[in-house]
Design goal:
By secondary structure, this protein is of the alpha+beta class. It has helices at 18-25, 72-81; strands spanning 29-33, 38-41, 65-68, 86-92, 97-103, 109-115. A hairpin with a 5-residue loop joins strand 5 and strand 6 (109-115).
Length: 116
């Protein structure tokens, strides 16, 4: 048996509210939309990881999602421009990432990061 894909499911009263955060700001593609579920992603091959943590590092809460980007500062600027409040960072962490925390429209804490 081989794991082929891992999908994170976020309960939302209005799945269409994800568009501004995940598609407009982060640039993900709308892969599926049945009205009751909207799936955003990329056709690019990506690594699969599941993390289990007691804290988020640097005395921060454990984020619900971590999304790696190629330019943290550009992502942070886009989030601010779109009206999303940054809750932590941007910060260069001692384990070799630059990151910030932001909440998506459903209140999920999202860790946006890039490896330094």
């Amino acid at each position: 048996m081989k794991v082929k894909r891992i999908v994170s499911n976020i309960q939302a009263h209005d799945p269409q509210a994800a568009k501004r955060f995940y598609q407009d700001v982060l640039g993900l593609d709308l892969l599926m939309d049945h009205g009751w579920i909207a799936t955003y992603g990329s056709t690019e091959e990506m690594g699969i990881q599941l993390s289990f943590a007691t804290e988020g590092g640097s005395d921060t809460p454990v984020p619900d999602l971590s999304i790696e980007v190629d330019d943290v500062d550009a992502a942070c600027a886009c989030m601010r421009e779109a009206g999303f409040a940054i809750e932590y960072g941007p910060a260069d962490e001692p384990w070799g990432v630059r990151r910030f925390y932001v909440r998506d429209p459903f209140g999920k804490l999202v860790n946006i990061l890039a490896h330094c």
